[in-house]
Amino acid sequence: MTEAHFALDMRGITKTFPGVKALSNVNFRVKFGTVHAVVGENGAGKSTLMKVLNGSYAPTSGTIRVADKEVRMRRPADAQALGIRMVHQEINLVPDLSVAENVFLGRMPGRWGYLRRSELVSRTQAILAELGAIVNPRDRLGDLSISQQQLVEIAKAYAANPRIIVLDEPTSSLSEHETAALFRILRKMRDDGIAIVYISHRVKEVLQIADEVTVLRDGAMIETRPISGITASEMIRLMVGREVGNVFPKSPATIGAPVLRVENIGDGTHFHDVSFEVRAGEILGLTGLVGAGRTELAQAIFGLSRLVEGTVTLNGRPLSIETPADAVRAGIAYVPEDRKGDGIIPEMCIRENISLPVLRKLSRIGRISRSADRALASEYVRQFAISPPDGERRINLLSGGNQQKAVIAKWLAAKPSVLILDEPTRGVDVGAKAEIHNIIGRLVGEGMAVVMISSELPEVMGVCDRVVVMRGGRASAPLLREELSEERIMTLATDEEAA
C-alpha cells in the first residue's frame, strides 16, 4: 500500500509539558475508508495525541502528514481547513443557539449578509434524519438532554464533509438503540472514503465498529492491529498492562428491608405513575433508551425538579423534598450523569470538592475546621485509591475515572442511606470501571441502598439485583436478576405492547 492511501500519518510524535512526557515517540497511521480505534486507560495519551492532531497542541517533536502532504497545525482552524473534524466527549456547543445554528456554526447559509433560515433548518433536518436523531432543528440546544446534545455535536462534524473525523467517546451518553444508529452512519461515512478515528473505552463497541485498533499506554504506542486478529481480553490486557478480572463484578451482599419507596410519582412532563422500591444492600438498575425519563426521575427524587403526583418514603417515613438540601438531610445522595458540568467544581481541589456537601458538619462557630477538612479528604482519597493521592490537587487535572471516584466520595461524605448513580462509569476506562464497581459493591455490602442508571446493558446485567426498564416516561415491573437478558430489556425499552 502506498503512502497516498493514508489519510493520516503521524510519526515520532512526542509531547512534553513541564515535568511530564505525555507522548513518547508515537507512530499513528490511519487509512482512508477505515474506522481506526484508539484505546487505552485514562491518562494513556489518547486525548493529547488527538489535541496534537486537531491543532490544539504543537508536538515537541515529530511530523504529521495528511493525505501524503506534510502539514503544520498551529491552531484548530488549521486542522479544520485540512478537513479534520473532532467530536469531543464533553459538549462543545453554544447552549443559547438553536440546534440548526450549532450544526452550521461558522458556515451558515446566506447571501449578501442575510441568513437563509429556512435552508438552514431544512439542511439540518436532513442531516439529523440521516443520523436517526429525533431532534427539532429549531429547539434551543441548552434545552436538550446530554444525549441529544451529543448527537447534535456529531451532526455538526458530519455536516462539514470531513476527510478525517475524530470521535472521542461518542456513545458515552447514547443508548444501545442510538449507538446502533450511530454505527450505521459511521459505516456509511467509512464507505464514502472518510477516515474515522474512534476513541472509546467500550471494548465491545470497538470490536463491532473498528477495522484496526491502536493501543496506547503511558504515552507510548503499544501496538496497532487489525480488529479481526484481537480478542476483547487481549485488548484489555494491552491497555492496562495486566490481567483485569470481571469488569462488572457482582459483590455478595445481604438484602434487607425496603429503604426507598416511590409510589405513582410523576413530574407531569417526563415521567408518570412510576413505582418501585430499593432495599438495603440492593443495587436496583434503572435502564431504557435515552430520553425515557430515567435522569429526570432521579433528579426529581433528589429535589432538582418538582413532583406533581405520588409519594416518596424513606425507611417508612413520607418525605417532602423541595430542594437537594432536603434530600441530603433526609439521607439521599445523587451522582449526576454530567460529571464535569454538574458533579465537580473544576477550579477547586479534590479536598474542597469532597467537603462541599458537609461543610456545616466540618464547621464550628462559622469557621471550617481545616484539620477535619483535610482528614476527611485524606480518608476518601486513600479509601478510593484516587490518583495522584494529593487532596490539594485541582480536580480537573485528574483522569475521568479519578474524577468520578472523587464525586462519589463527595456524596458518601454526607453518609446517605440511598445513593443514586446516573451513568457512574460513563467515559472511564476499563480499569477504573472495575474500581468503581468494587466501591459500589463495598457500599451495598455495608447495607446501603443503590439505584444505578445505566445505558450499558452488560453493566446492568452484571451488577444489579433487580432492574426497572423505562419507556416513554413509564416504568416496567422490576425484573429479577435471573430474568435478565439483553433481548428482554431491549424489548421492554422499545416495544410499547411488551412494556
TrEMBL record:
Record membrane topology: Peripheral membrane protein
This protein's GO CC annotations: plasma membrane
Residue ranges of every copy of the ABC transporter domain listed in the record: 8-243, 254-497
Record CDD domains: ABC_Carb_Monos_I, ABC_Carb_Monos_II
Top-level taxon of the source organism: Bacteria
SUPFAM superfamilies per the UniProt record, alphabetical: P-loop containing nucleoside triphosphate hydrolases (SSF52540)
Subcellular location(s) per record: Cell membrane
The protein's Enzyme Commission number: 3.6.3.17
UniProt key word Cell membrane: yes
Major site of localization recorded for this protein: membrane
Keyword GTP-binding: no
One Pfam assignment: ABC_tran
Swiss-Prot/TrEMBL keywords: ATP-binding, Cell membrane, Hydrolase, Membrane, Nucleotide-binding, Plasmid, Repeat, Sugar transport, Translocase, Transport
Any one GO molecular function term: ATP hydrolysis activity
Family: Belongs to the ABC transporter superfamily.
Protein name according to UniProt: Ribose import ATP-binding protein RbsA
Organism: Martelella mediterranea DSM 17316
Gene: rbsA_13
